[in-house]
Design brief:
heterodimer, A: 246 residues, Rossmann fold, 10 helices, B: 349 residues, five-stranded mixed beta sheet
Chain lengths: 246, 349
């Protein structure tokens, strides 16, 4: 019998510890599948952000370097410059990338560093217990916006994929979701394209995932999936915002 | 081969670094250390190296962290306010056991302070500086020659201990020009870097991190780091003894303050006073045993610093109740002159 589905070689054979309905495990798999697809496991180094993202080192069967909070793009820059032939990606959450690490991500993209950034946007600080993130939607209740995110008090959420797409050094920027099978398949293709940019030396590539955090959203997993469709996608449209002209 | 040069301290430091095999430099402009990034911007491409002007000192230190994890010899430099911004990254490097060289051409503070020479960052440099229980090796040059030679040494020490090394100089040492001899220096024989990240090709994946969550792991890691610091104390203390043998009064000073103290000692000696100098070259590890030994012989100490009193605490700890320790501080603005130290010598001799 032909085997059509298996655990990617780039993932270790260990159970994920993530909360029920969390999308990190799924996103890990998509990244690992892209690495496998290009047969890059032995030359890929991951850089872990701080937050739930830090645990990529528990799950990926590749070399991993842990970065200080928000600094993964700068760490990846040093790594890539020293090892230009290796494939380097960062894996960062929204607090890490769009708040404390805003400076590093913008400058790394704008320099056109030939790395790939996987950005997991679940509109909330996950590991610290559900505080307001730079991508928290207006009106969204979190532990530090208990009355809902107020425009006057906290301003607007950042749309990172669009922002990154506006920079000269960016070769590829896209936003995907993984709340149903059709979107997972689209996301799989896009992650592959992002890594392909790096393999071809095109410069900075960026994939933003809209990701569920049922625990900190105070929802059951099915409700969380519905929220992605009904609330997140209208504000964070899916699509490819920048790609090289062929 | 020997070559005589008449160059600035900052340039001497850069030449020592390149000689040590440093091929990666990441930095952000700040006075009075701009000659360093400018030198590397010009010269690293000529040796197939890489220079990046980072967006901030925070980015600089993290680029250094990344390059170090790949096994590269890399450095950054800054001056006091920028070094404050790097403390997070230095702490992560210490926790992750990553080597790297960080140069602090100290200027005055606190806050924006000024661009004049200072020794106000002694505590920051010798106590770890960032969060957590760690130390960095701290080298304190006092001449253009030492700016060069200690820069060379710093990379070996960083690799030997897999730990950040700080070169603590100041605006005077960075900006002054004097003669130096560029000669072949002896590198240490160091083990292969079998821990670096290169991609898990035909080996198990490697992980470099400072997060330890499992029961007992963190405590064990802290003891492991402690053992390293103890080894540094045993093997890496460096100092200069100047006219110590017959001295009744020992000046303890480092860097520029030691330089000026030597001139003051010349005045004192001419006047018949037996004054010597103990100059720590490593501020961590601190030459506590050498000081304790001198103290047992019943000598007096005068600590001279370009601040209001920081290293003097280490001198007092080393000397204990054995000897009297006096302090003369000249906070930044202008460097001290020999005459004012001579006045102080007369008071305490």
């Amino acid at each position: 019998m032909k085997q059509v589905f298996r655990r990617p070689a780039s993932l270790l054979d260990v159970p994920f510890h993530f909360c029920a309905g969390c999308h990190h495990g799924l996103i890990h798999r998509l990244v690992a599948e892209a690495i496998d697809h290009f047969e890059l496991r032995e030359k890929t180094i991951g850089v872990a952000g701080v937050g739930c993202a830090v645990f990529i080192y528990e799950y990926f069967a590749i070399d991993v370097l842990e970065a200080p909070h928000g600094r993964a793009p700068a760490v990846a820059t040093g790594l890539k410059r020293a090892l230009p032939e290796r494939i380097i990606f960062t894996y960062q959450g929204d607090g890490d990338l769009a708040s404390i690490g805003m400076s590093e991500i913008m400058h790394t993209a704008n320099r056109g560093e030939n790395i790939t950034v996987i950005f997991v946007n679940n509109t909330v600080y996950g590991m610290t217990g559900g505080q307001m993130a730079p991508t928290t939607l207006l009106g969204q209740e979190t532990t530090t916006s208990p009355y809902g995110r107020d425009l006057q008090q906290a301003g607007y959420p950042f749309r990172m994929a669009e922002l990154i797409a506006s920079l000269g050094g960016t070769s590829y920027s896209a936003r995907v979701a993984v709340h149903n099978a059709a979107h997972v398949l689209k996301a799989k293709k896009i992650v592959r394209q992002a890594f392909e940019m790096q393999i071809k030396g095109k410069g900075f590539s960026f994939v933003e995932f809209l990701s569920a955090c049922p625990t900190n959203w105070g929802m059951r997993p099915p409700q969380a999936l519905a929220r992605i469709e009904n609330e997140l996608i209208p504000f964070f449209p899916l699509g490819i915002f920048k790609e090289p002209r062929e | 081969m020997e070559k005589r040069l008449f160059i600035k301290g900052n340039e001497a430091l850069c030449r020592g670094a390149i000689k040590a095999g440093c091929r990666y430099y990441f930095g952000y402009p700040i006075t009075p250390q701009n000659d360093i990034p400018e030198f590397f911007a010009k010269h690293l491409p000529q040796v197939e190296g890489c220079f990046i002007q980072a967006e901030s000192e925070i980015a600089s230190i993290n680029m250094l962290l990344g390059a170090a994890a790949a096994g590269a010899r890399a450095m950054t430099s800054s001056s006091s306010p920028g070094i404050s911004l790097m403390q997070e990254g230095i702490s992560y490097m210490a926790g992750s056991e990553l080597p790297g060289v960080i140069v602090n051409i100290m200027r005055s503070g606190p806050g924006l302070g000024g661009i004049s020479a200072s020794q106000g960052d002694y505590f920051q440099a010798t106590r770890g500086g960032g969060h957590g229980d760690y130390r960095t090796i701290v080298l304190a040059p006092h001449s253009v020659q030492e700016m060069h030679d200690l820069a060379f040494l710093a990379f070996d020490l960083a690799d030997k201990y897999r730990n950040p090394v700080i070169i603590l100089a100041d605006a005077v040492l960075g900006q002054m020009q004097e003669n130096m001899v560029e000669r072949d220096l002896l590198p240490m024989s160091l083990p292969t870097k079998d821990w670096i990240l290169t991609g898990a090709s035909r080996r198990k994946p490697r992980l470099i991190k400072s997060l330890y969550l499992k029961e007992g792991e963190m405590e064990q890691h802290n003891w492991k780091l402690f053992a390293k610091y103890q080894q540094m104390k045993k093997e890496e203390v460096r100092l200069e003894s100047h006219l110590i043998e017959d001295a009744e009064l020992i000046i303890v000073a480092f860097g520029t303050a030691a330089r000026v103290s030597k001139s003051a000692i010349r005045i004192a000696r001419t006047a018949g006073m037996k004054v010597g100098l103990l100059r720590p070259i490593t501020l961590f590890p601190f030459p506590e045993e050498a000081l304790a030994k001198i103290a047992q012989a019943g000598k007096k100490f005068l600590t001279v610093e370009m601040n209001t009193g920081q290293m003097v605490e280490d001198v007092r700890l080393a000397v204990g109740r054995q000897g009297e320790v006096f302090f003369y501080g000249h906070p930044p603005g202008s460097p001290p002159v020999p005459e004012e130290i001579w006045e102080e010598i007369k008071k305490v001799y």
